[in-house]
Structure to design on (566 residues):
DNA sequence: AGCTCTTATGAATCATTGA
DNA sequence: GTCAATGATTCATAAGAGC
């Protein structure tokens, strides 16, 4: 099976208008978060975030197939000592728009950004909001079952400090046999809490969820050969994940720089397909 | 220092009216969750949940000291394939009422209830919403620093299967030294994600967050000798935690049975103090 | 004692059945 | 139809039995 990846430059509110209805199987994106300071695409004021988002999500709703899903990775900022409410308001507004708020997954960031404040601890989680058009939708639960390594890891986690010390002194005394037993247990279904480390490589961009995150949702909520859209593609993590999993990818970004990075991330074959080949130009 | 615990039977909306303003340092509670079916106290319809809650939280706001905090443990249900929005609406309504939505902590339930459905994984987290009256409030971050044993455990959890296998084969090759290094690291501040197992003992009640949960917030958000209120005290976990940490406890519950359980949980001295001693009766 | 295995069960959710 | 009750699903713990 051959798959394609495309990166289109522009505002997704406009670019998507050239897409036919029900042409995308899955949308996974991490939109620019609200920010009071900047006046650019990535700096929408919190009070205007819902208003800014809705015309775009209307296009998402139109181009998504009935069996499709929309995964929105987002987290409200704290400002002036308080959490903003624009994400809550966005969820309510999206339901008004016709989306079903199917689930809220928690991405637990194991190695979150360090910091210390008098009234707040480090923020170690983000929302992954799952919206659908219908109550029945594509979901391949077996594709994301937790492999045995993770399970053994969680068993190791439950060891007390004494166990660790004993392990250290009585090397190979039979403890290893136990581990072997654990490794033979069957796979288990995950929960709605995802434990993923943030990427710590020397990337050029600041945002960027770890590739594990879009991978997990792509495996779960689409089939090989399907089309995955990221309307705020940024550095292209979603496209890279889609490509590696045998899905067609479409990325959109306002920034030409990000579009270049996304093309790079998704593979060299993109150089030949910068213009929309499947969906045609705007009329 | 001597501390007292009281359990008062009745609806907290009425019972709290006899409390003076600004007489409580911390409120930690897990209210009855919305339920469409039952018509009892524990079965408020989701559509009426906010309306039901607001008069009660108005009393919470009145009796709480300016430096105090209100911790609300809650999670919306899924019904008909979709998450309810009443918790989101409640957050917005509480802000309208004058509360500051300071933070949202995630309680990650490591051993959540089993189950399998075509469109949903097991629900492994609940919200712990943190509301305050002022931007500056009592917060003892040092009181909840993560001890070394836990930290080492979480490092072990991150080991990959290969690491375990390597450990198993190359016994004592230097891997143990790494563990020793981990064990000598200083204490670390936690994040806003709490990893606690649900209690699994043979308890008589269904509700009940684990005692670790109120303990953590009581240590963080109050001082010894302070007064902690749980207006939906249930089986008394909050009172037990408060008592063991040297805080005065006040519990309220509509159910006489739960009041008895709460008195039992907080200690035998309660038998002498079932009636309000400090705050007096309603006029 | 200590390790291993078994068993019970917990703020769940959905589809189906029946009133 | 609408609403209430029941069965099926299935994992992390603790408690207890057995060796």
């Amino acid at each position: 099976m051959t798959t394609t990846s495309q990166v289109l430059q522009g505002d997704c509110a406009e670019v998507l208008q050239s897409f036919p209805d029900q042409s995308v199987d899955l949308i996974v994106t991490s939109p620019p978060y609200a920010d009071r300071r900047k006046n650019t695409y990535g700096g929408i004021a919190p009070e205007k975030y819902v208003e800014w988002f809705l015309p775009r999500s209307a296009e998402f709703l139109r181009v998504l197939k009935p069996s499709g899903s929309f995964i929105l990775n987002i987290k409200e900022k704290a400002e002036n000592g308080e959490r903003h409410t624009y994400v809550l308001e966005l969820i309510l507004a999206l339901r008004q728009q016709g989306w079903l708020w199917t689930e809220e997954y928690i991405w637990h960031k194991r190695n979150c950004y360090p910091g210390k404040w008098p009234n707040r601890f480090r923020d170690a989680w983000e929302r992954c909001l799952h919206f659908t058009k219908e109550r029945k939708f594509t979901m391949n639960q077996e594709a994301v079952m937790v492999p045995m390594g993770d399970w053994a890891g969680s068993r190791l986690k439950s060891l007390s400090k004494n166990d660790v010390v004993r392990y250290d002194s009585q090397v190979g005394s039979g403890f290893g046999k136990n581990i072997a037993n654990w490794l033979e247990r069957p796979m288990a279904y995950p929960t709605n809490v995802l434990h993923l480390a943030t990427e710590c490589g020397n990337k050029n961009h600041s945002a960027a969820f770890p590739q594990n995150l879009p991978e997990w949702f792509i495996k779960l909520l689409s089939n090989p050969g399907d089309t995955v859209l990221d309307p705020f593609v940024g550095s292209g993590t979603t496209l890279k994940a889609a490509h590696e999993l045998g899905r067609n990818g479409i990325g959109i970004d306002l920034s030409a720089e990000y579009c270049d990075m996304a093309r790079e991330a998704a593979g060299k074959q993109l150089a030949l397909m910068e213009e929309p080949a499947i969906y045609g130009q705007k009329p």
Observations:
- Residues 36-37, 109-117, 122, 197-202 of chain B lie near DNA strand D (CB under 10 Å from a C1').
- Residues 150-188 of chain B form one domain.
